Methylenetetrahydrofolate reductase (Steroidobacter flavus), 304 residues
Amino acid sequence: MTQPKIEARVPSIVEQTAIARLARECSIEMNVQDARDLRRARGLLPSGKKVYVSHLPKQTWQQTLDACREVREVGFDPIPHVPVRLLDSEHTLDAFLRQAVSEAQVAEILLISGDYPQAVGPYSSVADVLRAGRLHEHGLRGVSMAGHPEGHPKVPLAEIRRAEREKVTLAQAAGLQTTLLTQFFFEAPPFLKWADELRADGVSARLVAGLSGPASIATLLRYAVRCGVGPSIRALGARPTSLTKLIGDHGPEALVRTLADVSPDRYDGLHFFTFGGFLRTCEWLQRVDQGAFTLDEHGSFSVG
């Protein structure tokens, strides 16, 4: 039986420009240990880059504040993660926001519930914090919140979808620039379906695609299992032996190129999770921003 012929994909200058723009305008994530690499990162990323500072288990609020201050000092825009279930009181939230704004000129935070079974204080959900009105009172201008195109392993999908819309409504009612930043994924269709459904429902928040920077397959699988990444994890198995030997690297090139070909009306940019490879992702972004990559005929590209 004759196999259908697969058409090669012809590279174009339009695609190259769109890919470089996505790299230039993206945000990136770091953890507090990555602060030692910020001055080197300053030579790789443009001034004003949005840098999200994660809040790891057992991390103190002061460590987050210290990292945000260092991010600001090198010329980036710090956006701290705030897992609301770790806030033990209203006073803790107020003190954190006050210091973040005054010491690091933080204008936006990322609110997440956090994967903790119970709240240690008065806030069980992001909506609880938004209803309290503290962000606006402290002069914050924006808030990012989690989006889950592929659902969540511990929460029913209908509840996830209801919560996403509720968070956006509350944040926008408070006059905050609102962003839904997704969990990382490896295939575009679930993200685009999610984004299209939100737009069809009249949701006007910024929709940002969370991707993984270059990393080993073993690292990505470890984080994917921990974070509950959905069906798109099968894309990690595209290369023979990857899942069995756990060797080699996986980069975001094919996914970035796919999203670069999508109308910008459907979503609002990229965010890169770095999983301990902060500088490596910074270097990758610089090369892509500068156009130091070559499109191939298979829907991906290689970075020089």
Summary: The mean pLDDT is 90. DSSP finds twelve helices and twelve strands in the chain.
